[in-house]
TrEMBL record, chains A, E:
This protein's GO CC annotations: ATP-binding cassette (ABC) transporter complex
Protein name per the record: ABC transporter ATP-binding protein
Matching InterPro entries: AAA+_ATPase, ABC_SmlMolc_Importer, ABC_transporter-like_ATP-bd, ABC_transporter-like_CS, Mo/tungstate-bd_C_term_dom, P-loop_NTPase, Transp-assoc_OB_typ2
Domain ABC transporter: 7-237
Alphabetically ordered keywords of this record: ATP-binding, Nucleotide-binding, Transport
Any GO BP annotation: quaternary ammonium group transport
Gene3D superfamilies referenced in this protein's UniProt entry, alphabetically: 2.40.50.100, P-loop containing nucleotide triphosphate hydrolases
SUPFAM superfamilies linked to this entry: MOP-like (SSF50331), P-loop containing nucleoside triphosphate hydrolases (SSF52540)
Gene Ontology MF terms: ATP binding; ATP hydrolysis activity; transmembrane transporter activity
UniProtKB/TrEMBL annotation, chain C:
TM region positions: 7-26, 69-90, 102-124, 152-171, 204-224, 253-273
Organism encoding this protein: Pelagivirga sediminicola
Keyword Ribonucleoprotein: no
CDD domains associated with the record: TM_PBP2 (cd06261)
The organism's taxonomic lineage, starting at the top: Bacteria, Pseudomonadati, Pseudomonadota, Alphaproteobacteria, Rhodobacterales
Main subcellular location: membrane
Family matches, as Gene3D superfamilies: MetI-like
Protein name: ABC transporter permease
Single biological process term from Gene Ontology: transmembrane transport
GO cellular component: plasma membrane
Protein family per UniProt: Belongs to the binding-protein-dependent transport system permease family. CysTW subfamily.
Automatic annotation (TrEMBL), chain D:
Location within or outside the cell: Cell membrane
CDD domains listed in its UniProt record: TM_PBP2 (cd06261)
Pfam families: BPD_transp_1
InterPro entries: Bact_Polyamine_Transport (IPR051789), MetI-like (IPR000515), MetI-like_sf (IPR035906)
GO cellular component, one term: plasma membrane
Membrane topology: Multi-pass membrane protein
Keywords: Cell membrane, Membrane, Transmembrane, Transmembrane helix, Transport
Subcellular location, principal: membrane
Protein name: ABC transporter permease
Domain ABC transmembrane type-1, residue spans: 76-276
Length: 367, 331, 285, 283, 367
């Protein structure tokens, strides 16, 4: 590699007293890419971000930007900027004042500042609102101002700490797409943290799934969704039917399992799933096929007959809950988008099946 | 009944009150005050709120004419035989309005100088308090007696000018000049008797214009300190008993007057207040020390030289007030 | 339902109206009328502005008036300057328990009356007092020093007495400033001073104004501190009101003084609000 | 600047030192007041003459202790009675005001609100004299026209209570309003919905919710009344509350008796404040 | 019909000054059913509910419960109870106190109250928590307490005003299913309001879609999703690609359209879509099929070739944005769950098609 990555963290660790908030995390983010850190509340995401921004000192480890360690650089001198969770726009200034703040600090001339501010407002699609007050903007507009305020300084890396957390659902959906295109437009490295998997999946080039201070897996959205490497990743990314079970037999990459609820199934064994081991088994609702006839599903490794317990109509994301005839256990199954099974009624008999490759099992974790 | 008594500090000692309550069954509530505030309170209440008050004899006629805050005494209720006749007569005369008598005397004394002779031997008259060598060690009240005292020691006669506002104003303006001139020498203007005693006792003040009794009290602790009758004459005052116009327990008030004028009781009050009373024969019960101190401070000619306050005509206070304010505000 | 709501409204309105009219509005109107009355003889009065003329023409009164106002403004500024760093420290630099402890400590002096506080200062400042003795003992001065009975003593006392009313609103507003906003200021390249000037202080304006209003008011209307600590050297405006009412029996002039004081405080508070673009509701309510 | 931002050590040290000095400044006057309550001297000042409890328990002149000083004890009782009356009255009216401003939108509301705040920016002494003037006008009028002697309109405890009430009510209103604003009105609607009538809903839901503020306002009102000087000075009659009694004493000169009373006051209000804090914590 | 519906509103109208918050709304809710009112913020949902509960008087119209008008009944006497948006549990009482509140108001004896409270706690699966404080419960538990507090009074109708609004995403998903089963357990009529279409779709027997004070359509979830009757319903329920266009020709139920962006397409004409009329056209992303070859899509009425503009990977709900070669317009298309097109890359050429029946067009509204 000829050019250093924009951001590189090496063995980054941070303790708070007894708590190990960030535990030996290493990653690097190539220039111009969109990198997300995805994890549940309290896993240490913000701690990483604040160390990068300079508001916390790492207990150990190094942070380098464009190949130069920034550990000794105070926050106001680091070539990174941050979009805060609640944006932290300056309510005592108007939009111009907010966007121009960093430029004024850098000692730029008034005329240049005005020009740059206009330019960036144009760029984020909000020309001419410079004189407005912060509280005269909508949530989405504020979002964009917060990004513009940083981008006008042309940082090497932009950090975003759950910036969509405070927005309502519909706006969040829109902003996901918009953020991604802003990143493309500015062509800057984004490091984005979130606990919402769909945000991470939709926007990122690469995602790190974080749990209890450690990175469990780093990869593209597809990697995480289709090829989770740990039980935690499998459960945190996407919806799944999930059981606890034990391995009865292993054959090549495929394990024969029995769930605690009594179901038997064949699944792809990830990690060391030895005979007799306790495992977590995950099957995505959309990986399960439905048939009116057991014969329709003959090609699947796992088959089950049951009755329709509940119809959860939700347009394209409609599901049914299938109650197994054999064990009484319940499974969520996505209905095909074709609308083929739209006429199902509660209590109707039904057959379902799924392939071993679509069922993942991992040595049982605590998660 | 409850007797609400408005009086000076020291005039109603706890032992006297206890004895009175025990003998008569009345209860006493004491409020401590001074002339101005006594009259102001009575004015604000229209003469209510208290059953017995003790302003000086010169402060009765004027306020009564203007505000009607007192009620006439029923002399038949008062055991006049307990009073020193000359003082009773003088007080009656000064407090008669429209033929009615409003006051009888209780305690008398003088204002003059308290001097720590070890430190300020040269202070003989009021104006000596302005001696620059005493800077920061002098104190007096910023009240009308000070104006009067300074006027006398400057060779003026304010009492003479009582009836003539213009002449009085002129005198007062001269006094004002003097007091402003004197201000850098003053440590503070004292307001309560014990406050001054503390200042003198601690040595912060070595010469002051004050009441005689304070000087005698200090003299008992420190022989260097004593009351000195100024060469221009001590100012003589008599504090009296009056009935506020809307007092509600006149009987208790008369009982109190008659009670405290008994020689033994009057002596107890003298012990506490430090001043002699108008009670006939009480002097016999007074301590020898006090008598000696009195005689020390008041040789015969000094007694003759005492300037007794005539009644204050209405209107003078406004003139004096302006003077006092200007002195206070001067930098 | 509408009828019962109306009844409830009237029942709730009554106490407010009684309180405001009987204890605030009418008394002030009555005082105004009294101040417009001139005594022309024993028990005889007529309406005139003579009292106000007296106030305006007698240099003593105007001087005292101005002096009181200027000293009060000064006391307000000094209080603000002393309190701001302390409030900032409490609101932003310490965390958790220490914070609430420090805040409570700020309140402690105010659990006792102003009289006691002033009394404490008298014990400290007088010639034979604690500070003078300490200075002599430490050899810094050779003889006793009198620190009482001067303007500096008044200022010390006024600032002391007012401190709480500055610290509390300041801590409250500074507290409401999200740390992230300060961090954002740094993140965008700001330095300590520029963040303070452009972010922290503008944010604290409502607290500063409400603190200043209260402190100014309390200083202007103070009676105890100037009379007790100022001694011979200070004539405070409230003292003049007191002496007109109590010593001089001149209620008419006293009422005029009272009105002047009310007018001065209202005017300065109004000016302060105007200058900073605040409203009474926002800063006091 | 804030803990998360690296700050030069020197600045941090200077700042902390400054704050420490500030607290010394706050505590010093109170500390000397407290300490000299135990000095065996007639005057609260150095030199130290030895430790004594006479200023609390002494029975004989000149060192009569607080607990045997009738007039001081009486003044404390007077202050307590005045404080209790003011607290009850101002909390009652304050609660009513809070409901009025919080629940009703009516014409003139803005004006009334500003009027309600006004007593806070009127100097205490002016409040005192205006009430004194007005009550005297009425009392004199009654006397002149009907020969009715309205004693309660003359300087005295009734006027003292009214005078203090006139501005403490504003504070009570603000304290209670602040909490009422945090009250989620849907709680009251929920009570109605569950079968309560309006009064029951207020009694069982709103008032319990307001209780911490009501108690808080009451304690604050009591303390403010207890230490009020300026307004009281103008309205006091024959029985003086403690601050006035102490002021009268102080004019007569400082004695350690006043230190002793002050110390007791400090203890009393600390106790009250601590109870209040404990109460607020509990709810 | 023999029995009156549990709740019947007739020509219900409410004005606030100039605003017509509820405009001539009529509906009836049969006993034991789950009825939802779905609409955007400010459309008047809460206003309806508050009129039913008795906190607001209707300007005109009638509200009848079990056939009897309740207009003159004060709120504390109406046989309906309400679960508030933020639950409005009484924080000054413990759980028992909360649930027993209504019973105490009804004057029931202490012993009976205790028994009833225990009973209902049992029923909602939280036995033995009566002594806890409100703030010691999790969000989902509070939810259930709020319902129990009403149900213990055995109301004829339970009103729920966006009760899930304050919960976080994952919990909201779970509570949807739980609410539905609670309703089944108590067998009471629920009237539920929400602005979240997925809540309404998943739980309700019937849904009224409300807009600007009026009901636009009342029906089952499937009705609304597959057979919207107005432009507003089509856009509010589920995601859609949406264009403005004009009718060029009408043939039977099918219209030939041209969008403002230049696309031509055939769509099912709803309402009076006459020639030349301006229309809104809606096509759901999952109704569009993808093919690598134009020939694969020959059977569709509408076809288009373009390139992949953006990949929005989101697990089972992944979409791509297709940029039309012809007009440059963008369409969102759901990827099949089979994972068949998982290997698509940005800029790849692609063909898409959809049938006229899956495209709905309506006379253009303002929405
Ligand atoms: N200043 C601090 N002092 C002590 N512990 C802290 C501090 N900041 C964070 N922690 C702890 O460190 C861990 C990680 O916190 P962090 O804020 O990084 O989580 P997060 O992933 O950002 O969570 P969220 O999604 O809720 O924001 C948590 O256990 C937290 O309690
Ligand atoms: N008390 C009121 N006074 C005046 N207008 C009101 C009042 N209550 C509601 N409105 C208006 O009536 C309309 C409908 O309000 P409503 O609260 O019923 O909406 P909603 O559908 O419940 O919205 P949301 O989803 O935001 O809760 C809105 O325009 C609102 O502004
Ligand atoms: N210790 C009390 C002295 C009282 C003096 N009365 C003086 C009146 C002077 N005009
Ligand atoms: Mg975080
Ligand atoms: Mg609503």
């Amino acid at each position: 590699m000829t050019s250093a990555p924009d951001l590189e963290c090496t063995a980054l660790t941070r303790r708070f007293g007894e708590t190990l908030a960030v535990d030996d995390v290493s990653f690097s983010v190539p220039a111009g890419s969109f990198f997300s850190i995805l994890g549940p509340s309290g896993c240490g995401k913000t701690t990483i971000m604040r160390m990068i921004a300079g508001f916390l000192e790492p207990t150990s480890g190094d942070i380098a930007i464009k190949g130069r360690s920034v550990l000794d650089v105070p926050p106001n001198k680091r070539p990174v900027n941050m979009v805060f969770q609640h944006l932290a726009l300056f309510p005592m200034m108007n939009i111009e004042g907010n966007i121009g703040y960093g430029l004024r600090r850098a000692g730029m001339s008034k005329a240049d500042i005005a020009r740059k501010v206009d330019e960036v407002l144009e760029r984020i699609g909000l020309p001419g609102i410079g004189k407005r007050k912060v509280d005269e903007l909508s949530g989405g507009q504020r979002q964009r101002i917060a990004i513009a305020r940083c981008m006008v300084l042309e940082p090497d890396v932009l950090l975003l700490d759950e910036p969509l957390g405070a927005l309502d659902l519909k706006l969040r959906e829109r902003m996901k797409i918009e953020l991604k295109s802003l990143q493309a437009a500015f062509d800057t490295t984004f490091v984005y943290i979130t606990h919402d998997q769909s945000e991470a999946l939709v926007m990122s080039d690469r995602i790190a799934v974080m749990n209890k201070g450690r990175f469990e897996q780093v990869g593209t959205g597809q990697d995480l969704y289709y090829r989770p490497e740990t039980s935690f990743v499998a459960s945190f990314v996407g919806d799944s039917n999930r059981w606890r079970g034990t391995v009865e037999r292993v054959e090549g990459g495929t394990a024969q399992l029995r769930t605690d609820t009594g179901l038997t199934m064949r699944a792809a064994a990830k990690g060391g799933a030895a005979k007799g081991a306790a495992v977590d088994i995950f099957v995505r609702p959309e990986a399960i096929r439905i048939g009116r006839d057991a014969a329709d599903l003959a090609q699947f490794d796992n088959q089950l007959s049951g009755t329709v317990g509940s119809l959860l109509f939700n347009g394209a994301a409609s599901r049914i809950i299938v109650t197994s005839d054999e064990t009484g256990g319940e499974l969520e199954v996505t209905l095909p988008q074709s609308g083929e099974f739209a006429d199902l009624t509660r209590g109707a008999p039904i057959h379902i099946g799924w392939s071993a490759a679509q069922a993942n099992c991992f040595a049982a974790g605590e998660g | 009944d409850t007797l609400r008594l408005l009086t000076w500090g020291g005039y109603a000692p706890d032992n006297v009150i206890a004895k009175f309550e025990e003998e008569t069954g009345h209860k006493v509530e004491v409020t401590m005050s001074n002339n101005e505030e006594m009259i102001a309170k009575l004015r604000a209440t229209g003469g209510g709120g208290f059953d017995l008050a003790q302003p000086s004899q010169d402060r009765i006629e004027g306020p009564q004419k203007e505000f009607g805050i007192y009620k006439p005494l029923d002399m038949s209720q008062i055991k006049t035989e307990l009073f020193t006749p000359s003082m009773l007569e003088a007080t009656k005369k000064n407090s008669t309005v429209d033929g009615e008598i409003y006051a009888v005397p209780h305690i008398w004394g003088t204002s003059g100088l308290i001097v720590n002779t070890a430190e300020a031997d040269g202070v003989k008259d009021y104006t000596d308090l302005c001696d620059p060598s005493l800077e920061g060690k002098v104190s007096y009240r910023l009240k009308r007696p000070t104006l009067i005292g300074f006027a006398f020691s400057m060779g003026l006669d304010p009492f003479e000018a009582y009836g003539d506002e213009a002449a009085y104003t002129e005198i007062m303006e001269q006094v004002e000049q003097k007091l402003i001139e004197c201000k850098p020498v003053v440590k503070t203007y004292w307001s309560g008797g014990d406050e001054l005693l503390n200042l003198v006792r601690s040595g912060e003040v070595v010469a002051a214009m004050a009441w005689d009794t304070g000087g005698w009290k200090l003299n008992s602790d420190n022989a260097d300190i004593n009351f000195v009758a100024p060469t221009s004459g001590a100012l003589g005052w008599i504090d009296t008993f009056v009935l506020p116009a809307k007092g509600k327990s006149d009987q208790a008030a008369y009982d109190y007057i008659n009670f405290v004028m008994q020689p033994e009781i009057a002596a107890m009050i003298t012990e506490s207040a430090g001043n002699f009373t108008a009670s006939k024969g009480a002097d016999e019960f007074a301590s020898d020390e006090l008598k000696a101190q009195y005689q020390g401070s008041f040789p015969a000619e000094a007694v003759d030289n005492i300037k007794w306050y005539p009644p204050v005509p209405a209107g003078l206070e406004a003139i004096e007030g302006g003077i006092l304010d200007r002195v206070k505000a001067a930098q | 339902m509408a009828a019962s709501a109306r009844l409830g409204f009237i029942l709730l309105l009554m106490p407010l109206l009684l309180w405001l009219t009987l204890l605030i509005i009418i008394p002030h109107v009555d005082m105004l009328m009294l101040s417009l009355r001139e005594r022309v003889g024993v028990g005889e009065y007529e309406t005139s502005i003579a009292n106000y003329k007296t106030v305006l023409t007698e240099p003593l009164y105007m001087r005292t008036f101005m002096r009181t106002a200027v000293m009060s403004i000064l006391a307000t500024l000094i209080t603000l300057l002393i309190a701001f760093p302390v409030s900032y420290y409490i609101a932003k630099m310490v965390r958790g328990r220490a914070r609430s402890v420090l805040f409570l400590l700020c309140l402690i002096p105010f659990w006792v009356s102003e009289l006691v506080r002033t009394f404490g200062w008298m014990i400290l400042l007088r010639e034979t007092g604690v500070i003078s003795q300490f200075l002599q003992w430490s050899g810094l001065v050779s003889g006793p020093v009198e620190m009482l009975y001067n303007d500096a003593a008044i200022m010390t006392g006024l600032v002391y007495t007012s401190m709480l009313f500055m610290v509390v609103p300041l801590v409250t507003t500074l507290d409401s400033l999200d740390d992230a906003v300060i961090e954002a200021g740094y993140d965008l390249g700001g330095s300590g001073w520029s963040v303070m000037r452009e972010i922290v202080i503008p944010h604290a304006v409502p607290g500063i104004v409400s603190g200043c209003i209260v402190v100014f008011m309390l200083s202007l209307g103070n009676y105890l501190t100037p009379t007790m600590l100022g001694g011979k050297d200070s004539l405070w405006f409230t003292e003049m009101i007191y002496s007109q009412f109590i010593v001089r029996f001149n209620w008419e002039l006293g009422a005029a003084f009272g009105f002047m004081l009310l007018f001065a405080s209202s005017f300065i508070i109004w000016a302060m609000l105007r200058l900073t673009g605040q409203t009474l509701e926002r800063t006091m309510g | 600047m804030i803990p998360t931002i690296p700050t030069p050590r020197a600045l941090r040290v200077i700042w902390t030192g400054y704050v420490a000095l500030f607290f010394v400044y706050l505590v010093l006057p109170l500390a000397v007041v407290a300490v000299f309550a135990f000095n065996d001297s007639q005057f609260p000042s150095l030199p130290w003459q030895g430790f004594t409890l006479d200023w609390f328990f002494g029975k004989t002149a000149p060192k009569i202790g607080v607990f045997h000083e009738r007039s001081i004890l009486g003044a404390i009782a007077t202050s307590a009675i005045v404080g209790a009356c003011v607290a009850v009255l101002s909390v009652a009216v304050g609660t009513s005001n809070a409901f009025l401003f919080n629940r009703y939108k009516f014409r003139g509301r803005g004006v009334l609100y500003v009027l309600m705040l006004l007593p806070l920016v009127v100097p205490g002494i002016v409040l005192g004299i205006s009430i004194l003037v007005f009550s005297s006008t009425v009392a004199n009028g009654l006397w002149d026209t009907a020969k009715i002697d309205a004693v309660f309109l003359r300087p005295g405890l009734v006027l003292v209570v009214l005078g203090q009430f006139s501005f403490i009510t504003t504070i009570a209103t603000l304290v209670i309003s602040a909490r009422l604003q945090k009250f989620d009105q849907s709680l009251e609607e929920a009570a109605l919905n569950l079968g309560a009538n309006r009064l029951t809903a207020v009694r069982t839901i709103t008032i319990p919710f307001l209780m911490p503020a009501i108690v808080g306002a009451g304690v604050v009102a009591f303390l403010m009344s207890f230490e009020n000087f300026n307004t009281t000075l103008m309205l006091v009659g024959s029985d003086a509350p403690l601050t006035i009694a102490m002021f009268d004493r102080l004019k007569e000169g400082s004695t350690p008796l006043l230190n002793a009373v002050s110390l007791l006051l400090m203890l009393g209000s600390s106790l009250l404040a601590l109870t209040l804090i404990a109460f607020q914590k509990r709810s």
